[in-house]
Design a protein that fits this description.
Blueprint (H helix, E strand, L loop, with lengths): L17 E4 L2 E9 L2 E8 L4 E5 L4 E8 L1 E6 L2 E6 L3 E4 L5 E5 L3 E8 L15
Antiparallel strand pairs: 1-2, 2-3, 3-10, 4-9, 5-8, 5-10, 6-7, 6-9
Length: about 120
């Protein structure tokens, strides 16, 4: 099952994994128009390719370690660390070991929703 817009409570084990390929999978855990929370797992060596989007993003490294590039700066972050990505800034990451990361996006990422859950325009 996938989470629904403004679903008040979400049980981790009831949400389906989305396999993004390359050792990355995610679960969309909660969202409304202004915010989205996404749980990600990265296998060691998995790459979050450099990209940019109009959403503001904050992330929490729950476990493992990742090399994160934001703009021209790169840092190794481990469990308990956070990072913040302003709107439109190029960023990416590489998992230095098996890792989990929790991403928050504002506003929500409609492009992450399954086709049958797209928001009306």
């Amino acid at each position: 099952m996938f989470v629904h817009k403004e679903q008040l409570y979400t049980r981790f084990e009831q949400i389906a994994w989305e396999d993004l390929g390359g050792g990355v999978r995610r679960k969309i855990m909660a969202y409304g128009d202004q915010l989205m929370a996404v749980y990600l797992e990265f296998k060691k060596g998995a790459v979050g390719a450099l990209h940019a989007h109009p959403h503001v993003q904050a992330a929490f490294v729950r476990s493992g370690s990742v090399q994160v590039q934001i703009g021209e700066e790169s840092q190794m972050l481990g469990a308990g660390d956070f990072y913040y990505i302003p709107s439109g800034v190029v960023h990416g990451s590489v998992a230095l070991e098996d890792s989990t990361v929790i991403d928050l996006f504002a506003p929500m990422r409609q492009d992450f929703l399954p086709n049958d859950q797209e928001l009306p325009t």
